[in-house]
Amino acid sequence: METLKKKITEHILKIVSNKTIKIIVCDINAYTDLASEKYNNVPHLDISTIIKNGNEFDIALKTAIDQDEFEYISDLYGFEDDEYIEEEIALDLIYFPDWPNNIDDNDAIIISILKEIVDKNTNLFNHIERFYFHHFGELDLVTILKK
């Protein structure tokens, strides 16, 4: 578990070193269309960034919830922007082979790691306006940080 915590911490701290990033969104995504049998249906923690401000994100989130369509949020991801950063961490250390069982318990582990990173490095998160966790495509976001 310490290896996973260290890996997540390293990736998050690398992201927050970029001062143009305003929002971090961590999601659990279990890829099912990969050519590699090894990673088929193995959950990953995807860490994405958004350079738009928190108010723009709030509007997009409200629209997404009203329309029940996640794409309103993913449209904010600046996939073409130089500032866009995406990291991907295999979660086989805690989820696999249990996946998709015990999701809530395993989510709680990830959420506690993310909150601990923020709590131990508050000064590094001064420019981060929002930090969320969720399962890909779902609109019930867990707030890690919101200013």
Order of helices and strands: HEEHHEHEE
Please report the total strand number as a whole number: 5
Number of helices: 4
As a percent range, the share of helical residues equals 25-40%
Structural notes for this entry:
α1 (about 1-15) packs across α4. With about 150 residues, the protein is α+β, with helices and mostly antiparallel strands. The model has no long low-confidence stretch (mean pLDDT about 90). It has a five-stranded mixed sheet, with helices on one face. It has four helices and five strands; from the N terminus they run αββααβαββ. β4 and β5 form a beta hairpin.
Top keywords for this entry?
147 residues; 5 strands; 22% strand; 35% helix; alpha+beta; five-stranded mixed β-sheet
